[in-house]
Amino acid sequence: MAGRKKGEADIELVRRVGELIRRVGAQSVIVSQTVATRFGLNTTDLECLDLIQLQGRVSAGELAAATGLTSGAVTALIDRLERAGYVERVDDPADRRRVLVRIRKGSIAEIEKVYAPLQKRTFALWSQYSDADLEVIADFLARNLELSSSWVAELREGASKRKSL
Q1: What is the pTM for the complete model shown?
Q2: Whole-angstrom Cα distance, residue 107 to residue 112?
Q3: Most buried of 4, 69, 81, 105 (most Cβ within 10 A)?
């Protein structure tokens, strides 16, 4: 604490958190790859299924924006998921010209079964924390998500500017 201002974080603790976040991210990729392989999917398709499930229904444009994939790549992704029976295209009730994608009822039940033991253990772990701790963790994760999403958008924008030069 010596030499630090009030409210200033310990630099070694900040580095440790950074390392742990990187390890969590890498482990998340490994989990996704393992589950995707089990179901004959690629990792991007599995993660997009999760994004669709989290949103309820999405447009191809929203998937493109979330993933950075081109519109053609998103169309191919949706086609693969539709052929595999995981998603369906539906008319947007607010704009009949627009098509949305949603999870087909019951189509991801087997995937959910594979994730269930991990989710149960994770929920048990998280439940050991106080509400106050969970508020801090949720705030930390939300801020990190926003920061990394913004950074990816900046990185993509910079790459597209370089391509157009």
Answers
A1: 0.83
A2: 10
A3: 81
* CB proximity list for 72: less than 8 A, separation 6 or greater: none
pLDDT at 2 over 60: no
Per DSSP bridges, beta strands 57-59 and 87-92 are: unpaired
First-to-last alpha carbon distance for the chain, in angstroms, is 50
Determine the residue type at 80: R
pLDDT per residue over 71-120, tens digit each? Answer: 999 999 999 999 999 999 999 888 888 999 999 999 999 999 999 999 99
| Residue whose pair of structure tokens reads 């493109």 in the numeric block | 64
Name residue 103's beta-bridge partners: 87
Residue 42 CA: distances (Å) to CA of 9, 39, 50, 52, 116? 40, 9, 13, 16, 20
Confirm if 88 and 102 have CB atoms less than 8 A apart.
Answer: yes
**How many angstroms separate the CA atoms of 3 and 1, rounded?**
6
DSSP 8-state code for residue 130: -
Query: What would you measure as the largest C-alpha separation in the chain, in angstroms?
Result: 64
